[in-house]
Amino acid sequence: MIVAIDGPAGSGKTTTARSVAERLGFVHIDTGAMYRAVTLQVLRDGVSLDDDTTIIGTAKRVRIELKRTEDGVLRTLLNGDDVTHDIRESRVDMHVSRVSEIAGVRDEIVRQQRELGRNVDAVMEGRDIGTVVFPDAEVKVYLVASVEERAKRRQKELTLRGVNHDLADVLADIQRRDQHDSTRAVAPLKPAPDAIWIDTTSKSIDEQVDEVIRLVDKRRRSEREAT
Which of 118, 213, 117, 172 is nearest to 126 (CA)? Predict the structure, then answer.
């Protein structure tokens, strides 16, 4: 079974997906981390962000692994090196949208994502899981929250990493990413027609997770009844 969780930045995708996967015993696949890993390599190599050909070559060349440690933390490995924290750097934040909009990059990463989700029960989070990567996913969820709430969450996340930003700046960045992600030509951010919307603005993490679990249970019941 594939549980697809899509939504804009700060809507709660990662925390919800991780917790749902833990409760169900599913694999958690953070697709955004994969695009961030490619972006990090591009920046480390000093590649021009206008050089689509070289960036696509980088996406095909690098080896990205998502591994869960014994304590339950999902680690992102880039060519064997743990870059879990590096891919959350501000410079990656600034350029990941540009890298991820390149058609050749998305083609390669989507191919890898489909391989990761093949023959396993997985909770996969991103921006185009239910529309592009796994349009036939058994459960599709689209998380939303007010832009103000998402900015507060993002600011808190940055503060925990020792990075201080004014809330107004974080809010402006969230709005910029929303505009960019929803209007890009390739795989724009949008809900699948059959996705269930969950507004997380005033929900706790437990409430969000419980709601997704109920959707999974409902799907399982319908499958049993159909056999």
Answer: 117
